Fold these 2 entries.
Entry 1:
Amino acid sequence: MPEAERQTGAAGPDGGVVFRAAGLTKIYETGEVKVRALDGVDIELFASELAVLLGPSGSGKSTLLNIVGGLDHATSGKVWFRGQELTAMNDRALTRYRRANVGFVFQFYNLIPSLTARENVALVTDIADDPMTPDEALGMVGLSARLDHFPAELSGGEQQRVAIARAIAKRPGVLLCDEPTGALDSKTGVQVLEALDRINRELGTTVAVITHNVAIRAMAHRVIRFQDGRIASVEVNASRIRPDQIEW
Ligand SMILES: Nc1ncnc2c1ncn2[C@@H]1O[C@H](COP(=O)(O)OP(=O)(O)OP(=O)(O)O)[C@@H](O)[C@H]1O
């Protein structure tokens, strides 16, 4: 990003660097076949920004999110989280990093069917250092009236919002979302986007959202496009639209 944009905070309300990747490369080897999933990626993510990651299937978006989230190791190159080098950490240290700092949201909600919304969130709040209460976290995502519902009694969008409440209840610095609206229609998807937007604005959480839905780019501070394991472009949105103005 040009220095001038960083100084004006155009990337987000804060502008401090949360993640920095330099020459990040990931090669998957399956038998004889080598896939260069990331090919020398240099990118920064900033404090309090909402970044949307776009790009064709197989372009490396999930691989990047998994490495910055401490779920996977890079083949070469480096990644720092607030100055701590993640690529130098062993699995134990990465697990500690992840527990303390990262919330994940995936396309499928992975809720425990036999537990209510509140109990699903409590699984995390019971083991975190300074968590919100489950009721607070579910309130943030607009589910105060659904605390005692089981997943089967909730719509897809509501289940995804329970998953988001579970991810943010430990107050992570970053929330990494891989296709969070991929299984949802426009109306319920917008409610999920509203929850992510509110978390970004009110808690200052850095939010990265992978999507195939280009309409979502308009709510981001920045749009990062992937192509063939590289960053093809980074665009700063001069103005952003609210999630309820997005349709697909
Ligand atoms: N565990 C793995 N083993 C082998 N190859 C993998 C593995 N994970 C990803 N890949 C390959 O790495 C490349 C990048 O995959 P990645 O999932 O990061 O892409 P993506 O942009 O997130 O795609 P999509 O939008 O379809 O989720 C693809 O060619 C994929 O097949």
Entry 2:
Amino acid sequence: MKIVVAGAKASGKSTVSKLLAERLGLRCVEADEKISELFREWTGFECSCAEICRKVGEAEFRRLEAEAVEKLGEEDWCVVSLGGGSLMNPKSRRVLRGGALWLYLDGSADVLWGRVMGGGKIPAYLDGCEDPAKCFAERVEKIRDVLLCRADCVVEVDERTPEEVADAAVVEIEAELGSRSGAANTFGEVIKLTTFGESHGPMIGAVLDGVRPGVEISEEDIQKELDRRRPGRTKMATQRKEDDRVQIVSGVFEGRTTGCAIGMLIKNKDQKSGHYDDLKDVFRPGHADFTFWRKYGLRDHRGGGRSSGRETACRVAGGAVAKKLLAERGVTIRTCTLAVGKVKAERFSWEDAEANLLRCPDAKAAEQMEKEILDARSAGDSVGGVVQVQVDGLPAGLGDPVFAKLDARIAQAMFSLGSVKGLEFGSGFGSAAMLGSENNDAMSGMSFESNNAGGIFGGISNGEPVVARMAVKPTPSVSLEQRTCDTAGRDRTIEIKGRHDPCIVPRVLVVMESMMALVLLDAWEIQERIRPGWSE
Ligand SMILES: Cc1cc2nc3c(=O)[nH]c(=O)nc-3n(C[C@H](O)[C@H](O)[C@H](O)COP(=O)(O)O)c2cc1C
Ligand SMILES: Nc1ncnc2c1ncn2[C@@H]1O[C@H](COP(=O)(O)OP(=O)(O)O)[C@@H](O)[C@H]1O
Ligand SMILES: O=C(O)C1=C[C@@H](OP(=O)(O)O)[C@@H](O)[C@H](O)C1
Ligand SMILES: [Mg+2]
């Protein structure tokens, strides 16, 4: 993502870009400097843009400027301060469109002319002009015509100090980024996963973008992970029978990623939409039926549409790729079940966890947990539980202050899963009852003697295992009679038909591993851009 700052001369592009870059924690790149650089490479002379324009004429200067823009197009994670005329060129506009947000600083010709005169530097293109103030005003108008309707954010600058302009720009940028996420089907900054498809549509799928070229990946690698989530395998899961075969349709050639978007499709084969006929106008308590209807005014009621747990297959497909890449970098992600309903694991052994379907680290508790799930199922009810995700081998340094803290990103990833209702890192809620001296992780030999923090300080991984625990609520769709309402506002009772997970825990484990992998790979790629080779 780059913020492109545009506007007429003296609107404050250079001044505000610097302030904005500081506020957003990004680099600031000046187009003028790039142009001077190109000119130096070309002629060996060190000149400012105005000098270049005077030396070579405006047409040649614009050619150089377009070449500089071409280079700026390759920049990422920065604020780009443009020259006044840069975006008047359609080709340059195209170059700077991708992955960018445009901020237009809007000033009136009078005020800007005042600033130009105050600085004593009349733009070169006004040389020889009979009425420079008028020519300048025409240029300002032209720029406004082009940018006012094209910019993503507009900030008026006449009656604001540069600091006030930067502050107003931050508000505008945040609002714009917020609205862009309206569709909210894409997750990640560099490693981006988009999922699509409804539970009862013809297929579901994922597009994973941002993965480097040359990574070995096969359908089998992905299938292995998908099979862990597949419905219908045991009595502890929904009886909807899907084979969840993945087909890679793009981005992989001769077994390796090409660097282009990786497209993955999974066909829906066992939809029984008739089960949902009764739910067309009635809301399932605990599910997303009511809120989707209130928000959109309509909904795909079959299987819950987009809000169905089925969508999470797509996350596993994307996560499988991320997981493989991380494994090559020595990072492993494991999950285990700490509780189901009222049954808790009393001991912790990864060996036990590997040996039962629930991945419970206590073999004895695993049996009781399974019984808890089957009992709830027989009673037409459901149970929830607690899942732990542990990441080993993660180097220190991943995660970005302030809004992209690693723990914040992980929390977002986990809470984006239906049924997740709580999350803690390390000593988590328990830390609230500890003394600082107990909770702090003492250091020796440049590492930590304990891990109450759960592997993250200040939003940045500290080299210890990242440990997160999630509370998963009992599945909302239960067949016992429940009180609810319909779309006409009448009170009703329902008995839900259809095939549902009596407990979400066993099937959400691999989904949580996948979401963790996506967050970590994304953070890793961002860190590589900030400080390549940082982990060595
Ligand atoms: C892997 C997975 C499987 C799920 N299976 C079911 C299910 O069979 N029946 C159901 O009603 N909800 C199921 N859910 C939960 C719903 O998707 C979720 O409760 C619903 O979208 C409402 O979101 P909320 O619980 O976060 O408020 C499942 C969720 C996941 C992640
Ligand atoms: N909001 C503002 N209020 C007053 N002066 C400003 C403001 N923004 C910029 N300036 C002044 O105007 C001149 C041009 O600013 P600059 O950032 O170089 O503009 P640009 O890069 O858009 O041509 C500088 O002297 C700067 O200090
Ligand atoms: O494939 C899946 O993971 C699921 C499919 C759903 O079927 P319906 O949408 O037909 O209810 C339901 O069993 C559960 O949400 C999980
Ligand atoms: Mg400037």
